Amino acid sequence: MESDDPTDVRVLAVTTDDIVTALEANERRGVDAVLRITPPFSGRMRARLHREGNERDYDDPPPIHIPPDRFVDAIPPFPSPDDTEDEIRSDSGTTYSQERHRERHTDAVEMWRSRVRESILESASIPAPDGPHVVRVATLG
Questions:
Q1: Angle at Cα 69 formed by Cα 67 and Cα 70, nearest 5°?
Q2: Comparing C-alpha atoms, which of 7, 12, 9, 8 is closest to residue 137?
């Protein structure tokens, strides 16, 4: 049954990639990526990647925007290219090159993504009229 009440949501399905992508976009570019639930609400809903600030006028109730960090236990620090370069240059057994830097940084970002995927929570809170409402998170893919 569909309704205007977000507390009817019990399970929120979201792709792991959408969570990781939203967090990465926010870390790298500060784009205010969120996971959005669009009404009407029902027991099982899908949250999709959305860039906050690109809204139009919505009917009542409006979509719910959930910051991606609510889906993750602890967000590891995002690797910076400067940190990657420092690691290479501090390793006496390794010679710095742009190619090595690019490869190492690509590996560091992939490791960050993996750590985020491993720390996705089984539940999250979504905003509701009477305060936060906890839902079960069902990750897809």
A1: 75
A2: 12
Token output for 110: 């992939």
Angle value at C-alpha 49, between 4 and 68, nearest 5 degrees: 90
pLDDT, one tens digit per residue, over 24-38 is: 999 998 889 999 999
Position 107 scores a pLDDT of: 96
Considering only the C-alpha atoms of the chain, give the largest distance between any 2 of them, rounded to a whole number of Å: 64
Tokens encoding 120: 């996705």
The CA-based angle 121-113-18, given to 5 degrees, is 65
pLDDT at 60: 78
C-alpha count within 13 angstroms, C-beta hemisphere, residue 51: 7
Give the confidence band of 61 by pLDDT, cuts at 50, 70, 90: confident
Secondary structure of residue 119 in the 3-state scheme: coil
Pair 59, 121: CB distance under 8 Å: no
Q: pTM to 2 decimals? A: 0.89
